[in-house]
Structure formats: C-alpha cells, structure tokens
Amino acid sequence: EQELVENFIHRLREQIEDACQQLGYLNATLSALRFGGERFEFITRPEPSLRQVHGLIMDSQTVLGSRLCDSDFRQRHQQGWDLLFERLTAGPGEELVPELRELQDYRNYLRYDIRVHYPNGDRALLSQIKAKKSGGETTTPFYVAMAASFAQAYRLNQPRPSDTIRLALFDEAFGKMDTARTASALRFMVDSQLQVLLATPPDKAAGLLPHVDSVRTVVRKENHAFVIEIDKARMMQELEAVA
Predict the structure, then answer these.
(1) How many CB atoms lie within 10 A of CB 231?
(2) I need a surface site. Which of 47, 86, 131, 205 has the fewest CB within 10 A?
(3) Closest by CA position to 197, among listed 226, 166, 162, 175
(4) Taking Cα atoms as reference points, which of 96, 239, 100 lies closest to residue 179?
(5) CA 74, CA 150: separation in Å to the nearest integer?
C-alpha cells in the first residue's frame, strides 16, 4: 500500500509538471501575437477542492530518494495524505470510485484560465469578463484554447514531437471575428504546427483568402457533390478589382 501511494504521488507530480511545461511552450508562442491589440496568456492555479492533495504531490519533489512516510513530509501534509491513502486503498465495494477517478486524473488538480493583456497595460481574467464582452472578443480565446488543445493532443510541444497528421478542422470558422483577429488566430495555429482545414460559407470566404494556402469549393447537384479547385491568386485579384 505504501509503495502504491508513493508511486502514485510521483507519477502525478510528473504529469502536472509536464502540463505546466506545455502551457509554458504555448505562452511563449502567444507572447508574440496580438489579437485585435490584445495578448492572451494561459494561467493555472491549484484546484481549491484538491489543494491539500496538490500541495502534497508537488512538495514530494523535495524528498526524492527517501520514503515519504519516513520524513516530516507526511506530517506537513497529513490531511492530504490521509485523503489520498483512504481513497487509494478503498475496497472495490466501497462508494469512492468517482472520487478515486478524480484523484487519478492530473488535469483535475489545476484550474485553468486565460489572462487577457490589453494595449493600455490593463489585465483581466477571461472567466471574469466573458459575460460582458462581444461575440468576437469571446470567440478569439475559444480558438486559442482549441488550437492549444490540438497542439497538446498531437504532442507538438514535446521535446521529441510525434509524427502526427496535426489536422485541425473548423466548421463555419471565425464567423464573429474581424479580419485582424482572424489573421492572428490563424497565425497562432500555423505557428503551433497545425494543419488547419476551414469550412466556411461563400460569403465569409473572402476574408479568409489572404490567410490560407489553397481554396476548394464544394458544389452539390441533386445527390452528387463535386469539389472544384479555386485559383486563389485570381480570386484575390477579382476581389481587389471590385473593391
């Protein structure tokens, strides 16, 4: 039981540290991007409901090489230790399965948010202002978070990235965002090494043209669909002539 608890603690600490490192990589990319003049930053803090266990897990780094129960480590984190030990050693018939699953997932130990940096130097948390902002202002962080999730899922920020397809698909993308925010969001996705596929109605396509590599139009006639390649350069010249 003691070995189980100690291995469990060290594994979770490594996972939480890795998650924070991943956010650090993403923040390094975000630091150079502006979305309508704003800059975004991922931040985390311990989940309040698991703060005692989180403190125990992260402090275990200080006693590597010795048994956690043989040091004053256990006394410093007695409440968290007792909670962890009780749930890990519960029998299969006891009603602690949901609580045990909560403890097993490293993501539950952190509470995530996005800090918005404004051009005038002010800062605010997205969780506090999202109800007061316009659609475009709240949609931008959504795409930032989505791109970050794709990057994490494809392990793009690992020291040795996986050879994955890196495909990110968005249907009717960027409908509520202005041109500047759209360009910044797409740049962030490209800088995150994602292969982005956007599906958008024809009336929204013109605003995306400068920020994509190729364009295809899907035409449906009766029960058949056809994919037509569009000459992007020619289409942009036609739009400039109309403007």
Answers:
(1) 11
(2) 131
(3) 166
(4) 239
(5) 38
Per-residue burial over 22-44, b if 16 or more Cβ lie within 10 Å, else e, is bbebbbebbeebebeebbbbbee
Return d(Cα 100, Cα 139) in angstroms, integer: 35
Model confidence pLDDT, tens digit, residues 13-65? 999 998 898 888 888 878 888 887 888 999 999 999 899 999 988 988 777 65
Strand 195-199 relative to strand 167-171: parallel, antiparallel, unpaired? parallel
Q: Is the CB of residue 168 less than 8 Å from the CB of residue 195?
A: yes
pLDDT reported for residue 225: 92
Q: How far is CA 169 from CA 53, 123, 147, 173, in A?
A: 37, 31, 10, 9
Q: How would you classify residue 167: left for phi > 0, otherwise alpha for psi between -120 and 50, otherwise beta?
A: beta
The set of long-range contacts for 103-109, using a CB threshold of 8 Å and a minimum separation of 24, is 103/50, 103/53, 106/12, 106/15, 106/16, 106/19, 107/19, 108/47, 108/50, 109/12, 109/16, 109/46, 109/47, 109/50, 109/53, 109/54, 109/57
Residues 6+ apart with CB under 8 A from 153: none
The secondary element (H helix, E strand) that includes residue 220 is: strand 215-221
Whole-model pTM: value is 0.71
Contacts of 76 (CB under 8 A, 6+ apart): 59
Q: pLDDT by residue (tens digit) across 172-189?
A: 878 777 777 888 888 888
Please state, in angstroms and as integers, the Cα–Cα distance from residue 46 to each residue in 50, 54, 104, 106, 108, following that order: 7, 7, 15, 11, 9
Query: Phi first, then psi: what are they for 217, rounded to 5°?
Result: -115, 135
CA–CA gap between residue 223 and residue 23 (Å, rounded): 46
Q: Report helix, strand or coil for 175.
A: coil
